[in-house]
Amino acid sequence: MKLISRFILIYLVVTVVVLGIGGYLSYFIIQDELNTELKWRFMGRIHRVTHLLEKGKDFNPHSLNNPGQGHLVVRALPHKVKDSTAIEDTLVWHRRLQQMEPNLKLTAYRTVQDTSYYISTYGALVETEDITKAISEIVLWILGMQVIGAIGVGFIVSNRLFRPFHKTVDKIKTFELQKKQPIAAEQVSVKEFNDLNKFVEGMTQKVVDDYLNLKEFAENTSHEIKTPLAIVQGKLELLAETSLNEEQHRYVEASQRSISKLNKLGTSLGLLTKIRNEEFSQKELVNFSELVTHSLQAFQELIDLNQLHVKANIQPDVRVPLHNALADILWTNLFQNAINHNIKDGRIEIELTPQKLSIINTGPSLSIKPEELFKRFKKADPGSESIGLGLSIVKNIVDQNDFRITYTYREPLHQVEVFFG
After folding, report:
1. Is the confidence at residue 421, as pLDDT, over 80?
2. Distance, first Cα to last Cα, the chain
3. pLDDT one-digit tens code per residue, 374-393
4. What CATH superfamily is the domain 284-419?
5. In what order do the strands lie in the sheet containing 413-419?
6. Could you give the maximum distance between any two Cα atoms of the chain, in Å?
7. Average pLDDT estimate for 292-311
8. Architecture of domain 193-276
9. Beta-strand runs (E) in 191-267
10. pLDDT of 397-412, one tens digit each?
11. CA-CA distance, 52 to 83, in Å (whole number)?
12. Any idea where the domains of the chain sit in the sequence?
């Protein structure tokens, strides 16, 4: 849910609650005001009746009854009582509504010329149903105007008010670290958005600085390490040509393998860093069919050396949106993995369609959990010469390009599938 939609929803909920409570209180306030007005009218009627009695005039009580304002009852009492006045609520049958309706009743005792009189009147200025109806209509009209106003403010005014915020969000979405440019803070009239823009500028500036420092460190380290490794490799090759006994030859060969592995490790880690930093962002439609076909020819010597049987089902002109270098790395790592983790006289089956690339190879069962296979330095065979970064590089390429990769094992077959899109 969008921020403005959530704000409108909260605003309307609060409005409904406030109007509900206000309508409820308004009912009693209006009723109290009407009862007060009616009480004063009834008191005037009592005074008028008392005045007529004091004058000794004959009168008809019905002549003092005003329509809708109550009924008057005057009755002489057989004995004298003290003057008093009492006001109370009562229920009276309403002929039109066919129900009992609350009314205000005033009862008074007055003594005139040694005769006590019982005087009573009751009625209502406005019926309860009318008050409820009027308040409900007022509340609904106010609520309707509030809803229209909230929607108008939310979807018209807010678009202009939140425009700087949306602009900043769009800049963050399109921010590319490879351009090495922080997001410049734009001055706007709203203080909070100014603070946000300044924070984003400072944050992206720090990210760019850290990225440049880290990249420079990695490049310098890689360059500086290669030189002494090349020197050591050359010295070991010269040493291997001298007269060494069998044990010394084994030491030299082990050292050469370690240096070769260290070279591969440096290259792979550098490549992995570049992929994660999205330095291969430019895509093109790579002809994957040609790539796989030419690569199989190049790998033929290695395939024969490992005594493997390769079966390929490659559809022609399969094009994949991918950086050309990443396409080669993706295929090479997957195919080398199928070769390196195979068995003698094993087989590899390759299927390429516009939807996916599938590689099936024979091999021993995994010694690790399948979900750990694509993590750094995880190897199916801990004793192999692999550095454990090949499938991790593949996984990063797949994730960066919104592909999907799966692994399944049905003894003795391992299957890796890459789904394009």
Report:
1. no
2. 28
3. 765 455 454 444 445 667 77
4. Histidine kinase-like ATPase, C-terminal domain (3.30.565.10)
5. 309-314, 347-352, 356-362, 413-419, 404-410
6. 155
7. 87
8. Orthogonal Bundle (1.10)
9. none
10. 888 888 888 888 888 8
11. 17
12. 3-149, 193-276, 284-419
